[in-house]
Protein: Quinone oxidoreductase
Amino acid sequence: MSKAIRIHEYGGPEVLQWEDVPAPEPGPGEALILQHAVGLNYIDIYYRTGVYKVPGFPAVLGMEGAGVVEAVGPGVTSLAPGDRVAYSSSFGSYATRRVVAVDRLVKLPDSIDFTTAAGMMLRGLTVQALLRQVRPLQAGDTILVHAAAGGIGLLMCQWASHLGARVIGVVSTPEKAEVARANGAVAAIVGLHDLAAQVKHITDGAMVPVVYDSVGKDSFIASLDCLAPRGLMVSFGNASGEVTGVNLSQLSSRGSLYVTRPTLMSFIATRQALESSAAELFEMVRTGAVKITVGQQFALQEAAEAHRAMESRATTGSTVLIPG
Structure:
């Protein structure tokens, strides 16, 4: 038998149950992974609460992890038992062992440990997509990043700064403002009150060409107000709730704005795209241009406590669950 965190219904953290599950076996094109670390992401909360629907109950949550290949299925030649691997965007990671499609796995460089990998794959690949593909960032750009002290936010501050951009971070506390500035933000704004006025002051009236917003409902209009004419609103999360009822005239009245709602899978859908994005992420980490901050670790069986910490915004950087 193996162990996993499963849910049998949607709800609060209390629905996360530590249970025995049948030992998985890899089929054609699959590999069995002994997991050393599992990443916790806000999307896991969306699935737990029913904002996003699970395939069926009982369901194992989680989207990323890292570990060692224990066995491979028929026809698999690209991996072998003993290989160190990591993955993202593969549902069902809250488990001690799991099966993953080989074309979703990447070999992990020896220079990156399992805990770091579990705290960087989904976030790191998301940042690569946001900064390098959704809108290729240019040196000299000034950007606004919400939740700048969170797992994705810290990576965005570092990566964007490395590319020569100026980052204005939005955070929830003065302590998190210090964290954002320490990771490359040239300015950090606490809360949403008078956000546009503060951005206008920082940019000498120019505003910003792009806003990266993972907060959602509470920040959407404030984010639009921070954009320069023909600016781009990148909405990629719903931490405060889903954005609904958008009136398109809100875009025209603010200067012919653009809005996009990207999802990582659209940018790593092919094997070539995944390998290319992962290679760039690994190189950024290897050279130290981006430093992965694992702010907190929990035992996998303490997933409910980890969810509570993330929902209360008590976390900084990445949160990693360690299978026992």
About this structure: The first helix runs from residue 42 to 49.
